[in-house]
Structures are given as C-alpha cells and as structure tokens.
Automatic annotation (TrEMBL):
<comment type="similarity">
    <text>Belongs to the FAD-dependent glycerol-3-phosphate dehydrogenase family.</text>
</comment>
<keyword id="KW-0274">FAD</keyword>
<dbReference type="InterPro" id="IPR000447">
    <property type="entry name" value="G3P_DH_FAD-dep"/>
</dbReference>
<feature type="domain" description="Alpha-glycerophosphate oxidase C-terminal">
    <location>
        <begin position="441"/>
        <end position="538"/>
    </location>
</feature>
<dbReference type="InterPro" id="IPR036188">
    <property type="entry name" value="FAD/NAD-bd_sf"/>
</dbReference>
<keyword id="KW-0560">Oxidoreductase</keyword>
<dbReference type="GO" id="GO:0046168">
    <property type="term" value="P:glycerol-3-phosphate catabolic process"/>
</dbReference>
<keyword id="KW-0285">Flavoprotein</keyword>
<protein>
    <submittedName>
        <fullName>Glycerol-3-phosphate dehydrogenase</fullName>
    </submittedName>
</protein>
<dbReference type="InterPro" id="IPR006076">
    <property type="entry name" value="FAD-dep_OxRdtase"/>
</dbReference>
<dbReference type="Pfam" id="PF01266">
    <property type="entry name" value="DAO"/>
</dbReference>
<dbReference type="GO" id="GO:0004368">
    <property type="term" value="F:glycerol-3-phosphate dehydrogenase (quinone) activity"/>
</dbReference>
<dbReference type="InterPro" id="IPR031656">
    <property type="entry name" value="DAO_C"/>
</dbReference>
<dbReference type="Pfam" id="PF16901">
    <property type="entry name" value="DAO_C"/>
</dbReference>
<feature type="domain" description="FAD dependent oxidoreductase">
    <location>
        <begin position="22"/>
        <end position="393"/>
    </location>
</feature>
<dbReference type="InterPro" id="IPR038299">
    <property type="entry name" value="DAO_C_sf"/>
</dbReference>
C-alpha cells in the first residue's frame, strides 16, 4: 500500500494520503471529482489533488443549470442532447435537495436565430427524446412537457419585455443547480466514502517519469506549508479544466491539448420578480439567460474566446458587462436598472478543441510515449457523471494489464453520500429536518436552509448548535441569508476549508449571494481563526485580502 505522507493529515477527505496509488486525478472541479468518484467506486486506490479549493475553478462560475440538451439540438448534437436529458434525471436521483426542476421561457423574436415554428418542431422532438426523464423522481421534482406561450400571455408575465418584434415563447423545463459548490462537496464526500482520498490546496508541479518509461506519478506541493512530496500512480488523469495545458507544460510533455477557451461572465443581481427563467437573444446577437436563483437573478453569460493561462482571463471587464446589458436593454421597454447588479461572476469554459458545446474528449498520451497519462478536455456540470464513468471505462480498457481487477459500479441511480433517502417529496425530507435534534435552538427557516444545503450532514451542524447554542447566531442578520455560525465551524472542522474564501464562497451561502458585508467577514474570521491557528495579525490580513478580492469583481460596475 505504500507509506503515509503526513503533511495533508489535517484536511484530507477520506483515508490518509499515501505515496502510491492506482489512479491520481489532477483537478477538483466537477470533471475531476466525478472521475475520482468513478475510480474509487470501481475499487481503485484513488487520490484527487486540487490546487486551490474544490470547485474554485470554472465549476463555480456556472449558469447553475443542469441542461436538458435543447441547446445541443440546436447544434444538431442529438447524442449529447439525449445524454443531457438522462444526466439531469440521474442528478435528480443523486441529490434531489440540490438539483431542483426549473422552467424557462425561450422568447421568440423576429431576429431569433431559429424561426419560432422551427424551434417548436425541435422542442417536440426533444420532448419525445426526453419521455420518462423524470420517472421515479420525488413528486416535487417532476418536469412538464414543452408548451407554447402566446405573446399576450408572455407580456402579462414579463411586462418589462419590449413587445416590438415579439412572437411568443416556448416554456420548457430543465434543472437548477441550487448550490454548485455544495453539490461538489457532496461528491467529494462520496469519493471519500468510497475509499478514495481528496486534498485541496495541493498543486501538482511536475509529472514524474519520462518518455518511454511513461508517467509514473506526480510531484505535489502543499500550498499551505510549502512542502513537496512525490506520489506514485499507475495512471495519472489530467482533469485540470482550462489549465490542462499548464499541467502538461509544467512537465513539458510534447503534446498540447490546445483546448478552446471561452470566458463567460454573469451579472448577479437582486430579485427582479421572475417566477421562471427567461432565455432571449438581444439585438447584438448575444443570447442571455435570466435565471431566478436564491432570491437573486443571474443574467448572462456572454462568451469571449480567450487564449493563454485561464488565470489571466478570470475577471469580468467593462466590455463584458456592457455586452450583456446591451443585449438585455435591446429587448426591454426601458434600460435595466444598473443599481440592481450586485457583482460579476466569471469563469473560463474549457472546451474540446474547436468545440462550442459540452462535447468531451479523452486523450491517452501513450501515443506520444507517455503511457499512464490521460487528459480530459470539454465536459460540463450536466455531463459530469458521464465524463467520470467514461474516463474510467477508457482507463480500464487501455490499462487493464497494469491495474488490479475492479468491481462494477453503476452511478446512475445512487444517492450521494449526504443525500436524503427515499422520501415521496423533497419538501417531506426537509419537513423531517424540523423535528430532528429538537434541543438545537434554531428557527424553522434556518433548519430548512441547513437541510437544503447539507442534506443529511445538516444533523452534524445541528449537533454543533446543541453543544454550543451561541453557534445558532445568524452571520448576516441584516440580509435574507440564513447562514448561521455553526456552518463556519463545520466548514473548517469537517469540510477541509482553510481560508475565508473556502468558507464564505464555497461552504456557506452568503458568499454566493453577492458581496459579503465586512461585518460578516469579520465574524467568520473570529470563528475560524482559533481553529486554524491564526493570530490577530494573520486574521486581519486574511480579512483585508478577502475584502480586496471581492472588490475586484464589483469594481468594474463603477465604470459603467
Ligand atoms: C460562464 C459559464 C457558465 C456555465 N454554465 C453551465 C451550466 O449552466 N451548466 C453546465 O452544465 N455547465 C456549465 N458550464 C460549464 C461547466 O461549468 C464547466 O464545463 C465545468 O465546470 C468545468 O469543470 P472542470 O472540472 O473541467 O474544470 P474546473 O472546474 O476549472 O476544475 C479544474 C480544477 O483544476 C485545478 N487545477 C489546475 N491546475 C492544477 C494543478 N497543477 N494541480 C492541481 N489542480 C489543478 C483548478 O484549480 C480547478 O479547480 C459553464 C461554464 C461557464 C464558463
């Protein structure tokens, strides 16, 4: 089994880290985590290594939609459309508390790219493709058939739409990713429960081995302590999203994946009263989504092709924001009220070479003399499970002579580690949370908030409150955010969070809902400083850095 490497002991999810594995996965975004889940699920000794924090890359910049493949129909990718429909259903089974049905109006205007009638025919075909897609899901997670909404009815619902050139809309259903960062954590917990290990703040700096010999593992640097270690693996899988070429380049593997990178920006706005999502194409040709989500509205994304290191393209520019607003204003009766914009969210979509969609490719570098190294390009949140399954199937097919025998693993109808079991409805599973641990003094709304975000782990957060009632305190009492102090403690003690961004932006809700008030940042710093051994100087530095960083996402709004 190899020797232990102790430097990650305080935060490893799953068994302690050793110096030898069957499979190492580089990158803790949705693709890497799903690959690790399938590797561990098959019984392979698996280690997932993430440079920053789980979900800190593109996976937290999503439009928060589990797509139903309609967009792929428009690109005539019928196989991907069918796969997306199925994957939405499997995710609904996996985590019904975090993946909820959501309806959207696809607005038809005279300049819409697909003629409305033509689009309707596509929707009908799509409906047939998706028959039975919600079978077996909880009663309140069902989706309906596509239906036409007349111009008159549409304007009744969306009175802000400019009626000029308006035809009507198609209403269809997909799923909403309620808290992508927590869904990713639920998957990491699932990896750990299957026997795999996952570490964050650990960067792969070098691939070990060489031409002929193949890739035999990785050198990993703990970004918290600065220490490095070599870890051997039969197979190394590069799932570093937009950074796959940097991982290859760090070792100078002569192959480059030359992925196509598209930066996408969203505007996170206050609640504008939408009851369902809207998709509309502006006069500038940009198709934007307006998505009601957690009492906020997400507007975007735009799409700009970028090149080079994705780190350099990770912020929104004034041009990005203006492009989105120009699209929105061109279909509205009056300009969108800029004061409603809370912040910008941006990320770089790592697409397979030349692709404009979620299509993914698996590359075995054995063809270049680097046996044992695989790279994934493309993929999406929606297709993440399929990516994980197919990457591991491919690895097993190509490397069966060097890997141990494996067990079968069908991930399609399995609850994630923290998901509620067999309830008739999601609401029922939340209601059950109201009567558990009655001694924890917490209101109804906060209890449901915890159940919705943590699944069965909400009990462990309640346990902290039972032990220390002070942890029931709301972290942002002047806002609609229901986060409580116990969540910050749990993030560090049980969820491997090691900094304010890890806690506020990826474990709690507050950092995903807009700029976090300085007072809340301070409160969370007070809670986690003793757990992380921060002295007063370190605490102050961490708070200042968090606030400065969050300002970078809002500064662009001042230039509008
Ligand atoms: C604006 C936008 C909106 C989107 N909306 C949707 C949507 O609504 N629905 C949907 O299904 N998909 C959506 N997508 C696509 C989806 O978000 C991405 O395809 C997906 O998140 C990519 O995941 P990933 O794991 O490949 O990459 P990432 O999430 O970027 O993960 C890669 C990870 O690798 C790590 N890494 C890099 N280098 C190293 C190293 N040397 N060592 C260790 N780790 C390393 C990074 O830190 C990063 O966390 C959207 C994408 C964008 C940009």
């Amino acid at each position: 089994m190899g020797e232990y490497i102790s430097m990650f002991d305080d935060r490893v999810r799953g068994p302690r880290v050793r110096n030898n594995y069957d499979v190492i996965v580089i990158g803790g975004g949705i693709s890497g985590v799903q690959i690790a889940r399938h590797s561990a699920g098959r019984g392979l000794r698996t280690l997932l290594i993430e440079r920053d924090d789980f979900g800190a890359g593109t996976s937290s910049a999503t439009s928060k939609i589990i797509h139903n493949g309609l967009n792929n129909m428009a690109h005539q990718e019928f196989r991907v459309a069918a796969e997306s429909l199925k994957e939405g259903r499997y995710l609904g089974f996996a985590a019904p508390h975090l993946v909820r049905p959501h309806s959207r109006l696809i607005v038809g205007r005279h300049w819409s790219k697909a003629r409305t009638a033509f689009f309707g025919a596509g929707m009908a075909a799509h409906g047939l493709l998706g028959r039975g897609r919600t079978e077996g899901l909880p009663a309140d997670n069902q989706a309906g058939a596509p239906r036409w909404v007349s111009k008159k009815d549409l304007l009744r619902e969306l009175s802000w739409l400019d009626p000029t050139n308006l035809v009507g809309a198609w209403r269809h259903d997909d799923n909403l990713n309620i808290h992508p960062e927590r869904l990713l954590l639920a998957l990491v917990t699932t990896v750990a429960e299957s026997g795999g290990s996952a570490i964050n703040h650990a960067e792969v700096t070098t691939l070990l081995g060489g031409p002929g010999e193949g890739i035999t593992g990785v050198r990993v640097r703990d970004r918290l302590s600065g220490e490095s270690a070599d870890i051997k693996a039969t197979v190394t899988i590069n799932a570093a999203g937009p950074w796959v070429d940097e991982v290859l380049g760090a070792w100078s593997v002569p192959a480059r994946m030359e992925i196509t990178q598209h930066k996408g920006v969203h505007l996170l706005c206050g609640d504008i009263g939408l009851k369902e999502g809207v998709a509309v194409r502006g006069e500038n040709g940009l198709r934007i989504l307006l998505t009601p989500w957690q009492n906020r509205t997400l507007i975007g994304p735009n799409e700009v092709e970028v090149s080079g290191n994705a780190d350099d393209a990770s912020r929104a520019t004034v041009a990005d924001v203006k492009e989105i607003l120009s699209a929105l204003d061109s279909v509205s009766r009056r300009p969108f009220d800029r004061r409603l914009i809370k912040t910008t969210i941006s990320g770089v979509h790592p697409r397979a070479k030349g692709s404009k969609t979620e299509r993914f490719e698996i590359h075995n570098h054995a063809s270049e003399g680097f046996r044992g190294l695989f790279t994934l390009t493309g993929g999406s949140w929606t297709l993440g499970r399929l990516v994980g399954e197919q990457v591991i199937d491919r690895v097993l097919a190509d490397e069966s002579d060097r890997l141990p025998p494996v067990r079968s693993f069908d991930s399609r109808y399995v609850n994630l580690a923290t998901s509620f079991g067999d309830y008739e409805s999601v609401a029922e599973s939340f209601e059950a949370a109201l009567v558990r641990r009655p001694e924890a003094e917490l209101g109804r709304e906060e209890r449901i908030h915890l159940a919705a975000l943590y699944g069965t782990d909400h009990l462990r957060v309640l346990e902290l409150i039972s032990e220390n009632p002070g942890l029931a305190e709301r972290l942002a009492p002047d806002s609609d955010c229901l986060d409580v102090a116990a969540q910050a403690v749990f993030a560090v003690s049980d969820e491997a969070a090691r900094g304010l961004e890890d806690v506020l932006d990826r474990r709690l809700a507050v950092g995903t809902l807009g700029p976090v008030p300085a007072q809340t940042v301070g409160k969370v710093a007070d809670l986690i400083a003793p757990l992380l051994g921060w002295d007063e100087v370190r605490r102050a530095t961490e708070v200042a850095e968090y606030l400065a960083n969050q300002k970078l996402d809002t500064a662009v709004l001042e230039e509008l």
